[in-house]
Design a protein that fits this description.
Number of strands: 4
Number of domains: 1
Number of helices: 3
Oligomer: single chain
Strand order of the largest sheet: 1-2-3-4
Distance between the termini: 111 Å
Largest sheet: 4 strands, antiparallel
Length: 161
């Protein structure tokens, strides 16, 4: 009777044929996986900051849209009550993290309205008689501390209606 060479004939022979990973292979695999996990962990703060910046930019755009539409719908002769004249300090409006009206102590964004004197290329020299330039500075502030973190300045031209 001839034995099939593919079938194990003894327990020692069957153990020798089992394929397994060596300790070096397992160590290398664990090292590669840990390096990949550490790299992903190092990218987490960058991703979180990017999300925070994108959220802030979205809220700034919402606040700018709300403030500029309010200014556009305000009668021209009452615009000074929103902006103040050139001798006054800029008027401040406060918004929370969601872009809603807030108090100065709980605000995440402060909006400073001013009346800068600007000239526009190609505009008539007497444009100030028919329109008012309003400066809108949206500053990201630390709630409670009123410390400016970042700010952006834009202008809007409010025509006389």
């Amino acid at each position: 009777m001839k034995l099939n060479p593919l079938l194990p004939s003894s327990p020692a022979r069957s153990f020798a044929r089992i394929r397994a990973f060596s300790l070096i292979e397992v160590t290398l695999a664990v090292g590669l996986v840990s390096v990949a996990i550490l790299a992903m962990g190092a990218l987490m703060p960058v991703g979180l900051n990017t999300i925070k910046d994108a959220t802030d930019n979205s809220i700034r755009a919402q606040i700018f849209s709300e403030v500029s539409s309010t200014l556009q719908s305000t009668p021209y002769d009452q615009l000074v009550s929103y902006v103040g004249d050139h001798s006054d300090l800029p008027r401040a409006l406060y918004f929370d993290r969601a872009g809603r009206d807030a108090t100065a102590s709980s605000a995440s964004f402060a909006v400073l309205l001013s009346a800068p004197s600007m000239s526009y290329p190609g505009a008539p020299s007497d444009i100030s008689k028919s329109a008012q330039t309003v400066g809108i500075e949206i500053a990201r502030v630390a709630p409670g501390a009123q410390r400016t973190i970042s700010s952006e300045f834009s202008t809007v031209l409010v025509p006389k209606s």
